TrEMBL record:
It holds the Pfam family Response_reg. Keywords: Phosphoprotein. GO terms for biological process: phosphorelay signal transduction system. The modification 4-aspartylphosphate is found at residue 57. This is EAL domain-containing protein. It comes from Litchfieldella anticariensis (strain DSM 16096 / CECT 5854 / CIP 108499 / LMG 22089 / FP35). Residues 140-391 form the EAL domain. The keyword Phosphoprotein applies. Residues 8-128 form the Response regulatory domain. PANTHER family: CYCLIC DI-GMP PHOSPHODIESTERASE PDED-RELATED, CYCLIC DI-GMP PHOSPHODIESTERASE PDEF. InterPro entries: CheY-like_superfamily (IPR011006), Cyclic-di-GMP_PDE-like (IPR050706), EAL_dom (IPR001633), EAL_sf (IPR035919), Sig_transdc_resp-reg_receiver (IPR001789). One of its GO terms (molecular function) is cyclic-guanylate-specific phosphodiesterase activity.
Amino acid sequence: MSAILQPLAAVLDDDPDVVVTLSLQLHALGMEARCHSRPEALLAELSTLGPRLLIVDLELGQSDDGIEVLRRLAESRYAGAVLLLSGVEPKIVQIAERVGRALGLDMLDPLGKPYRLADLRRRLEGIRPRAIPEGQTNDVMRSREEIDLALARDEFTVHYQPQFELVSNRLSGVEALVRWQHPQAGLLHPGQFLPLMTPDQCHALTRRVVALALRDADRWTAAGLSLSMAINVTPAELMNDELLSLMDQGRRGLSYRAPIALEITESDSMDDELLGGEVAARLRLHGLEVSVDDFGVGFSSLSRLQLLPISELKIDRSFVRDIHAASHDAAIVEAVTLLGQRLGIRVVAEGVESLDSLPLLRAYGCTHVQGFALGRPMPAEHILLVDRVLQV
């Protein structure tokens, strides 16, 4: 038997005015809120509350800070979403967001103080009520045993986020994003299950995603739509000896001939840069491309551009979302696009939340864009219904 639960949010902020305002706004957005001024009280109730969302201020008095809270949340295996809401310097917020992502937390795009209700609503659009079997905990739901069952039952699926070419304003490609269609919890995002998976499970998931993505791409080709495809892989998968044969077998017999890029996160590290370069070179020899995701948030960017045959850079959303308001973000975007132009590499701006940013991105030299303002991740059949020309 299942019970429909109203989404529960927990707020950690020591400013009473902010707490009152947030409580009222969350209630208006259909979310029950529990508020705390100190981390100990929140963490003590975390397992019993099971909040879908935590809103955390980074400044919590002299003895506490929000970054330490993120570490303790990760240690507690918190599986909900985290929204940083803080008035500190934007660079500090960006570092905290990166720390949370590195710890495996599901980090929403942060908000600065003051903020607008419309901005808060956009951040929370992905958090919905869900049916949870009574007495079943998040840990049991997302256990490795259940992941094995999900793989056997083909519960993992792929959604696709549209990508547009700025020169022509036309739909040009998609990014393949894995989802878990959980029978009780609904649609789960990668941050809710990837940190729990073993290397063998990750490899099985990669096989599943590649097979589904190539099958869907072939169907689009048959319908007259040729789109490039980016598929996310970990560095471990990129250097797996079976990856080349997996891709070759998957493409055998298909009419799909558009470019395929294997996408790695720039902040991930490779144990052996030379081996990584060898694998990337072999991928290129087999007609595949390498894309670097979240470019600009790691520390090995230039060395990778030198060592690896990279075809595409994707500028991290943290630099794109405030491109009009933050001059240092705009400068970084401009510098990366210039670097891409000089090296002959496609530059994709991720996280486009407003069409107003497109003229500036185009002026800087970005070749492609993707983001919620252009299209959210969607099932394969919906790609054929996407407007193929940007209305700007």
